[in-house]
């Protein structure tokens, strides 16, 4: 099953997440099919905390990809900011 989930990066105690489309059986930070955005929970000042390519995400969901709970929340948050 194809999943849309977060892949962790960044320094210790300074997380940075890529939103990736990946096979559900692969490791969290393993090989991914495509990167479709990022999430920076520690953004301060003029740093961008969230950037998603919603057209690509919607295309993957139409093909049957399942977003995780956190990614669903981030998609709603991005839609709210865009409106």
Automatic annotation (TrEMBL):
Gene Ontology terms for molecular function: structural constituent of ribosome
Family as reported in the entry's similarity comment: Belongs to the bacterial ribosomal protein bS16 family.
A GO CC term assigned to this protein in UniProt: small ribosomal subunit
Keyword GTP-binding: no
Gene: rpsP
Keyword Ligase: no
Protein's name according to its UniProt entry: Small ribosomal subunit protein bS16
UniProt-listed PANTHER family: 30S RIBOSOMAL PROTEIN S16, SMALL RIBOSOMAL SUBUNIT PROTEIN BS16M
Keywords: Ribonucleoprotein, Ribosomal protein
SUPFAM superfamilies, A to Z: Ribosomal protein S16
A biological-process GO annotation: translation
């Amino acid at each position: 099953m194809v999943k849309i989930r977060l892949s962790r990066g960044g320094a210790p105690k300074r997380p940075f997440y890529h939103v990736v489309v990946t096979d559900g059986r692969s490791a969290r930070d393993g090989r991914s099919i495509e990167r479709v955005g990022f999430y920076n929970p520690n953004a301060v000042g003029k740093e961008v905390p969230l950037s998603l390519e919603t057209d690509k995400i919607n295309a993957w969901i139409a093909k049957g990809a399942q977003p995780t709970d956190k990614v669903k929340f981030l998609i709603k948050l991005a839609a709210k900011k865009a409106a």
